[in-house]
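step=predict obj=Succinate dehydrogenase/fumarate reductase iron-sulfur subunit n=249
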Amino acid sequence: MDLHLKIWRQKDKQSEGKLVSYDLKELNPHMSFLEMLDTLNEKLITEGDEPVEFDHDCREGICGQCGMMINGIAHGPLKNTTTCQLHLRSFKNGETILIEPFRAEAFPVKKDLKVDRSAFDRIISSGGFVSVNTGQAPDATAIAVTHQTAEEAFDSAACIGCGACVATCKNGSAALFTSAKITHMVLLPQGKEERSSRVLNMVTQMDHELFGHCSNTEACEVECPQGISVLNIARMNYEYGRALFFRKK
């Protein structure tokens, strides 16, 4: 199949970027989207041009590194699918594909399609952990956790931190990411001891990173490749109000 690509090229975050057109022919429709970009880069290197910079790692939909906007949609047209798990068979022969980096004030472009998502790391560092000495691993049945609670915690922990929620939100909010990290820890016994300090620190850091505020459009859940529920945001708001209440007492 043949594709016409319009890709955002930007030397660094200080430089102005622009869309550059490329044509690729005789592509295998079973190639992944990132394999298509690899093919383009091989062509560019052969021709003596600068290859397109983009993030990737596991290429199995686990690490969350491969995020980009494809035809204006985070990770592309398939629901609950990361860019690396997207294949060319999802597009039509001869189609024009617009490829851009995730755009948010908190995600400055480093080069081409590669953005700086270290703001997420700083949110996690501010409170997304359990600081207790656990010693040896306890027996699996020593701490009682209901099946429903375990499933809810696992659903929240499935967040891969790709940033699609931020990129698709009109406000550039990180509420879904932050709330998922808060929720999966507060649901489990090990995370309850620091529940108040955790939510206060993580929400404060989120605001410090210049992410926008959540206005409940729920676009983040729609574009999330893991289908993380916006109910996590409601729980984060509850936990935040609770922490403020007990801090004032």
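step=describe
The chain has two domains: 3-102, 116-246.
step=end
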